[in-house]
Amino acid sequence: MMTAVVLGGTSGIGEALARELAAQGLNVVLAGRDLAELDARARDLEIRYGVRAWSRPFDALDFESHHDWLESCEREIGEEIGGVALCYGVMPSEDEAAVDGSLTRHMIEINYSSAVSILDRVAERLRDRGKGFICAITSVAGDRGRASNFHYGSSKAALSTYLSGLRVQMARDGVSVVDIRPGMIDTKLTYGLPGLMMLAKPRRVARDIVRGIRGNRAVVYTPKIWWLVMFVIRMLPDFIFRRIAL
Ligand SMILES: NC(=O)c1ccc[n+]([C@@H]2O[C@H](COP(=O)([O-])OP(=O)(O)OC[C@H]3O[C@@H](n4cnc5c(N)ncnc54)[C@H](OP(=O)(O)O)[C@@H]3O)[C@@H](O)[C@H]2O)c1
Question: Which region among 7-11, 113-117, 239-243 has the lowest average model confidence (pLDDT)?
Fold first, then answer.
């Protein structure tokens, strides 16, 4: 039975993905900072789905620990990891990010720098085996800089570009790399935000992620309608785009 890691196991999307993976019969490692919470969730997965599940500490900002994180995870649980899904991230408000440089730096470190740091190491290990998957949650916000959230969006665009290059490189080694671009999802991240539209449930996203991994897709917009929405937004000429309050 394959074992998958969910980095950010306490996130709304990460929790739903862990459930979906377990429902499909995969063993799951829930990784994050709140070990008590992750442990409770791991036990729940074992009882509900009859798979094995573990909790492991992971702090995105503890860059030193990334170097042999996967190796020590495999050693501790006694299983080979078949794939890693990166599901953590932060989104400060645009107004705060624009005036508080430390908040923006923190966001970039979590959403982009730490992702590159851990995924480079994961890629190294999976490459040696010639199989497996990497997937990471970026966002439709990375498709085009909008006045309402371009600080956050640019951290996701950077991650998408990284994943695009990694995908090409890893394809030669039999490892798939999937870029998951959700629209607006009903989680802690969006709770109470104004102007939410087409809010989707994390469960829906989780199903699309698993389908994307199984289908070895490059980019997955979820829910699917966001592909069309973002296609139109990307195509708008600048002189029109500037006049629309997005
Ligand atoms: N919700 C949306 O509408 C939406 C749309 C597009 C993309 N996304 C992206 O999808 C991903 C998951 O979003 P979500 O809505 O599910 O998030 P969420 O429920 O708000 O959870 C955020 C997660 O990030 C983790 N985290 C924060 N700092 C961390 C650190 N230093 N080390 C390790 N973990 C850390 C949190 O862990 P703790 O529990 O320890 O704080 C939590 O698990 C994010 O990358 C987000 O940008 C979300």
Answer: 239-243
| Ligand 1, residues at Cβ distance < 6 Å | 8, 10-14, 32-34, 58-61, 87-91, 110, 137, 139, 182, 184-185, 187-190
Q: How far is the CA of 3 from the centre of ligand 1 (A)?
A: 22
Class of the CATH-defined domain 3-241? alpha beta
The candidate with the shortest Cα–Cα distance to 167, out of 158, 152, 177, is 177
40-79: pLDDT as tens digits: 999 999 999 999 999 999 999 999 999 999 999 999 999 9
Mutate which of 5, 7, 10, 11 to test ligand 1's pocket (most atoms within 8 Å of Cβ)?
Answer: 11
pTM: 0.97
Q: How much is the pLDDT for 244?
A: 84
The pLDDT > 90 percentage for the chain reads 94
Strands laid side by side in the 81-86 sheet:
53-57, 27-32, 3-7, 81-86, 133-137, 176-182, 219-222
d(C-alpha 242, C-alpha 56), whole Å: 45
What is the per-residue pLDDT for 38?
98
Distance 8 CA to ligand 1 centre (A): 7
**Domain residue spans in the chain?**
3-241
